[in-house]
Write a structure and sequence with these properties.
Layout lengths: L10 E2 L6 E5 L2 E3 L5 H8 L3 H11 L4 H8 L3 H15 L4 H12 L14
Antiparallel strand pairs: 1-2, 2-3
Helix pairs in contact: 1-2, 2-4, 2-5, 3-4
């Protein structure tokens, strides 16, 4: 199993040396650090880590292996993150997290979603 990832410096982007995340064939260079997302959304370090791995397209077992935890523990991190973000799907959680990291203003809505 691998050591836990450090999120304020995941990998350097090839040209700029900035913090970035790899998603498929793309490097994403956020405007904000994951530590800012933790504070803004009340997420734990592990919950943010898990959401970033989900956004990168890893499976539950791959994520658990990278995080050095069991798949059941990884699933617990996922459920807690979804509750804190008020969402029910990985797509919604990733949209919120990546929008925030890209610099978009993300605030809780007082509107009730139409179902």
């Amino acid at each position: 199993m691998r050591a836990p990832m450090t999120f304020d410096k995941i990998e350097s982007c090839a040209d700029s040396g900035d913090v970035c995340f790899k998603v498929g064939n793309y490097d994403l260079s956020p405007q904000r650090k994951p530590s800012e997302a933790r504070k803004h959304f009340g997420l734990s370090h592990r919950e943010v880590e898990l959401l970033i791995w989900i956004g990168a397209g890893l499976t539950k077992n791959q994520i658990a292996d990278r995080m050095g935890v069991s798949p059941s523990t990884a699933d617990t991190f996922r459920r807690r993150a979804y509750i804190k973000l008020g969402v029910g799907t990985s797509a919604a959680a990733i949209a919120i997290l990546y929008s925030f990291l890209s610099g978009t203003q993300v605030e809780p809505s007082e509107l009730v979603p139409v179902v």
